[in-house]
Amino acid sequence: MSDSSQLAAAVHVAIDELTEELVAFRRDLHANPELSWQEQRTCAKVAERLAVAGIEAKPLPRGGLVADIGTSGPVVGLRADLDALPVEDLTLDPWVSRVTGVAHACGHDVHTTVVLGAGLAIARLREEQELPGRVRLIFQPAEEVMPGGALSVIESGAVADVERILAVHCDPAIEVGEVGLREGPLTGAADFLRVDLEGDGGHTSRPHLTHDLTFALAKLVGELPAVLSRSFDPRAGVSLVWGSIQAGSAANVIPATGYALGTVRMLDPVVWAEAEKVVVEAIGQVVAPYRVRATIDYVRGVPPVVNESVSLGLLDSAIQDSGGAMRRILTTQSLGGEDFAWYLDEIPGAMARLGTRTPGGPTYDLHRGDLRIDEGAVALGARLLAVAAIEGLRHANVSDR
User: Fold this and answer.
1) What is the pLDDT of the chain when averaged over all its residues?
2) 3-state secondary structure (DSSP) of residue 119
3) What band does 10 get if pLDDT is binned at 50, 70 and 90?
4) Alpha carbons 211 and 254: distance in angstroms, whole number
5) Are the C-beta atoms of 213 and 197 separated by less than 8 Å?
6) Domain covering 3-187+303-400, topology
7) Which pLDDT score is estimated for 398?
8) Which residues contact 228 (CB under 8 A, 6 or more apart)?
9) Are 367 and 183 in contact (CB under 8 A)?
10) How far is CA 16 from the centre of its chain?
11) Among 2.60.450.10, 3.40.50.2000, 3.40.50.970, 3.30.70.360, what is the CATH number of 189-301?
């Protein structure tokens, strides 16, 4: 049996012994969700369990915490996000959210438990043999708000010495046991756009004496996405979608103000760097014939998650060493935003999609109150990250020779 296989087998034994506890831990987090920047109870629960295992967790300045397993050598990071969403929990499981209007509708309770479980398994291995470096558990606040709590972790210096970083994200569209991997762009950059229009209003019987702001707003909403589709390489995947449009309140009154809210998303980090300039110029061109005045609020959110090949290979190796418990699939790209991307701007790394759908069961979607997770994914995610992290340390030591 190879060293990698022996390592994976030892991790699997440790996770098997922890599985019942990890499922209970995830249920407790699900029942007690906390919104972004408010994750005090969640952090306390994680720190308490790590302390039982002899692992010291250090709080971060703006929330969240980090904990190292090992004392010296290269550092591989495992990242979890802690926060829940302002969504009503509709699952009606015994561990349904006890907090009105707040739910773990994106699976962050699973992410947190997976990283905790990986850390506990690695700590057990360390009792038997010295690690070839350190594994840093990163429990990050506020992933669900832009530009994301990852920036606060980076600004604290908590990842300054991390050589590689890994994470998983629940995917309710693929079955438990399947792990989605993809090299290159995985998720999209996500920016927010608000355009306020102002002009002379008046009676709908005399539009020629007004700036007909409603018509101008309609042209903006319809034409701007088309203009952008011809302004960028189509392989960049640029997408502008409006979420809210408002102008006027009466059928016979042309309003003096109106606005549109939307998101601008793309897969290419180079295009992301220039998108704001292009969008602002395009808005001016679209509304110019209607003589309205445009005020533009363009807020850059997060860059794309771009998976690096070596890190992806570590995750793939962990899947191959799972004894058939996990299967690699090629996952699709998504235009959803994920602030794990900020780490990948600084550090090589990769994110895997962790299947959470019960085979033969219904397919749920993220950010919905009825999201249900097959809890078999918890132990599998912990195994995946634990094996990949230790293999990452071994790879770093070989690379340094």
Assistant:
1) 94
2) helix
3) confident
4) 8
5) yes
6) Aminopeptidase (3.40.630)
7) 64
8) 238, 240, 264, 278, 279, 282
9) no
10) 27
11) 3.30.70.360
